[in-house]
Write a structure and sequence with these properties.
The protein is of the alpha/beta class. The chain has one domain: Rossmann fold (3-Layer(aba) Sandwich). The chain is 41% helix and 20% strand. It contains 11 helices and 9 strands.
Length: 258
Amino acid sequence: MDRDVLRYYERGEEDRRLREGDGRLELWRTQDVLRRVLPAPPARVVDVGGGSGVHAEWLAADGHAVELVDPVPLHVEQASRVPGVTARLGDARDLPEPDASADAVLLLGPLYHLVERADRVRALREAARVVRPGGVVAAATIGRHAALHDMLRKRRYRGERAVVDASVATGVLRATPEMGFTTAYLHEAGEPPREFADAGLPGARSYGLEGAVWLFGGLEELLEQDRATVLEVLRAVESVPSLLGVSGHVITVASRPA
């Protein structure tokens, strides 16, 4: 694992990011999409790169049997304390799981940090191997212009301009410590379905999680006042092609062919 990425996650801040403030929008929208596309519980779900178990927690509470695989020892330790979740170390590109053994495989983080396309396709191919025929593979990606929009929103674009502009041009973000992130690959909107297809998962559909809402001023207040309306609107526009590239995060979903 990339040492910069490992050091970033060893700080133990990812769990809090999704449970507080604006980050809750990403969590709630991930729940909204996955609850519609996953098999009905009880299903066996392999949560690859599942971090501290933020998503595994609600999946288990929904009645799924969740196996979490993550390359960060701290995450495995944290996730192993979540009721109903089994956690172990592992790499998305070489999963410690039998063929066709899961009803669904989630990659809600690994594709962020595999900067080489061959590695991303390999991880998706592993997910396709582990899921049963007809089962679901879902993967999260970060939008190509997410760093640009985020730094502009935070009034820090000028100070990080060289790094941000390089990420727009190449997709590879070599984040500085001041940016609050780490090395990542930022996808163009049309890339994930093509990577899915090359991994043997044709017919993928993408769902923008935050749309343009994450760029709104006063988002936290809006979520407190009218969360239901925000989620309703985002669901209505989640697959509009012209908005996919604006969303900070996108989930792409396909079923393994029978």
